[in-house]
Write a structure and sequence with these properties.
Oligomer: single chain
Helix content: over 70%
Number of helices: 19
Distance between the termini: 59 Å
Largest sheet: none
Shape: globular
CATH topology of the largest domain: Serine Threonine Protein Phosphatase 5, Tetratricopeptide repeat
CATH architecture of the largest domain: Alpha Horseshoe
Length: about 325
Amino acid sequence: MDLARVSQLYLARSRETGNYDDVLSAEHAARRSLRNRISRNALAAQVLASSLLSEHRFAEALGMARSLESLDPDRLSYRAMAGEIAVELGRYDEARATFDSLKHDAGSLSVAPRLARWEEIEGHPEQARVLLRHAIAGAQLRPDLPAEQRAWFWLRLGDLDQRMGMPDSAARAYAMGLQLHPGDYRIFAARARLDASLHQWRAAIDDGNRAIAAAPFDPTTFGTISDAYLALGDTAQAKEFEHGMEIAVSHQPGAYHRAWSLFLLDHHRRVAEVLRKARIELKTRRDIYGYDVLAWALYHNGQYAEARRAMTLALSQGTKDPLLLDHARMIQAAQ
């Protein structure tokens, strides 16, 4: 049980710092704990499943989550985790069955954010917003929750509002999260992306630097800062942060990073490499965002008809993410 607890602490620290080494340490400690005892050791099994999910080892994580679910079918968090991983793998029929069974339990803090993400995938962002608002209200009644967990609910709401083109609402959500957990690198990173979307380039650089000062492992934030410097005409700094992004990617799980791939495509670089990696990943992980990367790579490679077919799969769930819709419009116009 000491090993199980230490694995939980490693995982918690990884979420606060973005340090991938802590994820690996969490996995290692959880496996040692399970080697010592499997029965009545759900904590270690749950940490192991979460660690595998953070490492993008989705199939293994799903197997562990389903094993937990079979041992304790009444535990909502196990079912919700299994549904979340099924979404990541693009197993949408499986995810739908899981989340349909959880709709009456939307008040649970372990269910609500995962169910909200599923509603967003299904093209119901307003319902997702309602779920996250209820979760935030529920989290406020839980003084036992760490501040970073309560802030995380505001982060989820802000990210949803940002994706749905509601920048003012997103900014308010991020501000509320920072009140709860000042210095939260995840919120500074999200706010940097919001700044960049509004062409507030200096603010994007400032918020991005605050994020990577606390957690220098987030590739997306390096990319945001690079784009901001490029927009300001500072190509030297843009190149430096692009290099930082590539280094950060090398410390991330797996050989494939979608934010890096989209960054390369948006800058018309290494298209053939991204296209090859996108095809490889889709052999095991067939989610809509994987098909979006494939479609965008095909578009940049001049294969417009095939890009349109891939984009049809990316839009197959009715998701209203503006990123997907913008890519779809450009592919349609090119063809």
